[in-house]
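Quick log. Single chain, no ligands specified.
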Amino acid sequence: MKIVVPVSGGKDSQACLKLAIQEFGVTNVIGLFCDTKFEHPITYKHIDTMKELYKCRIDTVCGGSVIEKCVKYKRFPGGGARFCTEELKMRETKLYCYRIADEYKHGFTLLYGMRVGESISRKKKYNHVTNTDLLDMNEVFPSKYPKKLAKLGIFMQLPIVDWNDDDVFSYLCGEHNPLY
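-> predicted structure:
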């Protein structure tokens, strides 16, 4: 195994999964779905559809639910309160990375479906990044991911960073989540 692709059920992460499987082979790729227990039923079905479509492994991790986090913090998540992303996705991804690195006894690359065309903040943050750059997760997400990940040989790459929506939909050839 060389590649982990976090998948949300959205078009960008699906494009990364498809790209990884085509480039590295299905036996070298694992998808990772962080279940917030608050996804649309069609999204859950689409995760299963991707497994069948690409004949791939997609592991599911869960660190609680959005509802539990809303009760805990007494508010809904939003731009200034990203507790769901941090606790239900980033934290679970970090724990998964440790587990996989220990299981395989070597590092790997995470392929994220982030694109500069998604938002002004992503354009500002990733405009200098090419689709082949290997990035230290701690440098990209300071304080969210420890430096230890790079020491374990775990890096990230943004293979569709410069794609636009049309590129993604064209690449998926109608295989995307029907919610789109």
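The beta strands are 3-6, 29-34, 57-61, 108-111, 154-157.
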